[in-house]
Design a protein that fits this description.
Layout: H1 9-15, E1 20-22, H2 30-35, H3 42-46, E2 52-56, H4 62-70, E3 75-79, H5 83-95, E4 101-105, H6 111-114, E5 120-126, H7 144-153, E6 154-164, H8 167-179, E7 183-188, H9 203-210, E8 216-221
Parallel strand pairs: 1-4, 2-3, 2-5, 3-4, 5-6
Antiparallel strand pairs: 6-8, 7-8
Length: 222
């Protein structure tokens, strides 16, 4: 189903400009676009040198906003390629007065354009689209081609924390991490009955649990 454009989207995005960088889409080739560096000035954005964590695919922002409130000593950059969804996350962070959350409107393929190498301590992948058809395998956010991007972003000892409700995607991700040289620190196949400390529930996660679906969680380290 096609998503309807939210009313006054451009005006709403402009009102959140201090919280947001919108990707330059002049170059439609993701590979060459990523090569044209435009690094976020993270210390200027947050006014400090605190560690940086990134959520890729932040949706409406529940996870990143709640996690940021729990960790004021951490800077969070939430990435979402769909501006129609991202605006709700931006408005939420602005309304709640969060000073340690910033947003980046771009696709995961061009993250290297905006982040200095080895500048991120943790990446969150919450309920990424599992893209179950075989032909879309390379588009999955835990495919080795994306893991190489994340490796470049993460500092030594940096981690990826992934959650999904899709068992096939969970198994695919475990294989991808192993084949790409990531160390698997922790894995859980029923997060509801085997919760992880300091874990924050996402919008989708709550719905999936109510429907009796298992939630899978993987923690990996570079």
């Amino acid at each position: 189903m096609r998503m309807h454009k939210k009313s006054h989207l451009e005006e709403r995005l402009a009102a959140c400009a201090e919280l947001l960088t919108v990707a330059d889409l002049t170059d439609k080739n993701m590979l060459t676009a990523a090569e044209k560096k435009d690094y976020l000035r993270v210390e200027e954005i947050f006014g400090n040198t605190n560690p940086v964590r990134v959520e890729i695919g932040c949706g409406k922002g529940k996870f990143v906003c709640e996690t940021a409130k729990n960790h004021p000593e951490i800077n969070f950059i939430a990435v979402e390629k769909i501006s129609n969804v991202l605006i709700e996350a931006c408005e939420r962070a602005k309304e709640e007065g969060l000073k340690n959350v910033y947003f980046l409107n771009c696709a995961a393929e061009v993250l290297l354009k905006y982040f200095n190498p080895s500048s991120v301590e943790m990446i969150y992948l919450n309920f990424s689209n599992p893209l179950p058809k075989e032909g879309y395998k390379k588009q999955r956010l835990t495919h080795p081609r994306f893991l190489e991007i994340y490796r470049s972003l993460l500092r030594s000892g940096g981690r990826i924390i992934q959650k999904t409700d899709d068992r096939d995607f969970y198994l695919f991700s475990l294989e991808s991490y192993a084949s790409s040289g990531f160390k698997i620190i922790d894995k859980r196949e029923d997060l509801k009955n085997n919760p992880a400390k300091d874990d924050v529930e996402t919008e989708h996660e709550r719905l999936f649990k109510e429907r009796g679906k298992n939630i899978y969680r993987i923690v990996t380290e570079v």
